[in-house]
Amino acid sequence: MCDCDCHKNYNLDTLIPLVGVITDIKEQTPDVKTFRVNALEGGKLFEHKPGQCAMLCAPGVSEGMFSITSSPTNKEYQEFSIKRCGQLTEYLHSLKVGDQITVRGPYGNNFPVDTELKGKNLLFIAGGIGLAPLRSVINYVIDNRQDYGTVDILYGSRSADDLVGLDEIQNVWMNTPGINVHLTIDREQEGWDGHVGFVPSYLRELEFSNDKTVLVCGPPIMIKFVLQGLQEMGFTKEQVYTTLELRMKCGVGKCGRCNIGSKYVCKDGPVFRFDEIDELPNEY
Amino acid sequence: MKKIAKSNLSALFAKINETKDLYVPVKNGEQVNFAAYSEEAEVDLTALKTVKSPKDAFFPQSENLYTCFNEQGKISITPEELQDKDFVVFGMKACDIKGIEVLDKVFLSEPVDSFYAARRQHGIIVGLACDKPEESCFCTVFGINPAEPTADVAVYDDEDFLYWNALTEKGNALTETLCDLLEDADNTAVENKKKEITAIAEKLPYANLSLEGWNGDALTEKFDSPIWEELYKPCLACGTCTFSCPTCQCYDIKDYNTGNGIKRYRCWDSCMYSDFTMMAHGNNRTSQMQRFRQRFMHKLVYFPANNDGMYSCVGCGRCVDKCPQNLNIVKVIKAFEKGGKA
User: What is the ipTM of this complex?
Assistant: First the structure.
């Protein structure tokens, strides 16, 4: 278990959820909505660290693990960006402001924002909904700007309509000193005058210096070619972090589902460094 | 050391049952399994192994976690009550007791599973030394002594008497409540019995099975071995091995709509099943070879890696007895020892 004190307020078993209320829904792309969740009495359900996850449940429908996309520096609420792709997410997308769900967590480890990432030049690379876990870190870094070096964000999607949180990217991130945002979409599109091309090839074009610490999230195929590109640019695996995702039920390393070798993604992950992933058996 | 005449056992069970729930091996048709004691129950202390392990006294096959009500969009949650009454499991064998120690590593590690912890707190185990360990038994390979159940009370069946030796505070307290029924005894009969059991255990066909090379450090070497591909093929993915196993801990969490709320329950699951790791995003163990490998790697490599070398197998031999395809952990260990098919 992580060394945080997240569970100190739990009088109950961690399998017993809290009730949360949806207080805002942003339709970000045709298939991604960002849900704002509050405790019934207002405020946050619990504290978390960037990269941690929570189990969201529509009682009687299903339950699933989602990364908490808001930064812990946000003191008012937590947000979850959810792509519609299965039974549970389909149902969550049908919910309205004021509807209640159950939430338990936070689960898992976090990006090492207070240790290994401190003072480093950071490069965030995300594809599609893969921005969700990184957004938590990016906003944490923005709110603690003095603790980190330069920040580059490379973000790509299928089309301009599929870029999650474009509002915040253009109005907040692009206006923060020392933060460079590089956007790309897969194919030409009317009204888009930015870069066109896949994330791994744009990465090569950008010719970043290899002194950066990299956080990458996105589809497995993107991650694979991004890692190849980074290595060709002289980055080592010790410099690159990502998150893994496997089926989970309990969230606390007991139900036996999400292990890769002797590591449980819910408890020992979801954040792994690539040299750590190399030590795991090839079963993820 | 105490003893009681076996002819008087029903009085002992009735006395325990006055204040506590009592689980005993009960014969039902051809099978013996642990069940709640009643006067009508056909208690059978002669069966060496129950078909199902007694782990569900602590980790039930199915248990409710909470009830969720949704009234006009307002959700409320009522957690299930934790076990708060003492209960006795009478007649557990040394291997199955060690199986509970394995489950302790899972459920009592942080964050503690409070449902399991409450049952462990209130459960009193009366262990019964194995009368005659049989061919499929290999508990000694895991350092377990079938003559010394590490329970709250160790009990020995010797002809007309049951010898009773309290080993813990819980055991002493239970003994205290039964003082009218138990009489003092000397150790001679029990010491002889232990020697008999040990002599049998030493001669069992799997007694010399070697675990050399099976540990947390062997992960990559064992995982990548071509032997799995040779071994798994007969596996039907029926899950019998996991459901009869005293250490298998995998569980599922599900909802049941009662019409008056949603019951959230958990139940045993099996890593042998094809949908065990399936999700909308994909599945990381799509072949039966991968699932087969997962089960044995977990017991012999992953679990020791996380638990100071402790294996997640206790050599009870149920999988040896029950697998319809005659696949089991002994076969796996032997195949690796020979570097190919056993």
Answer: 0.91
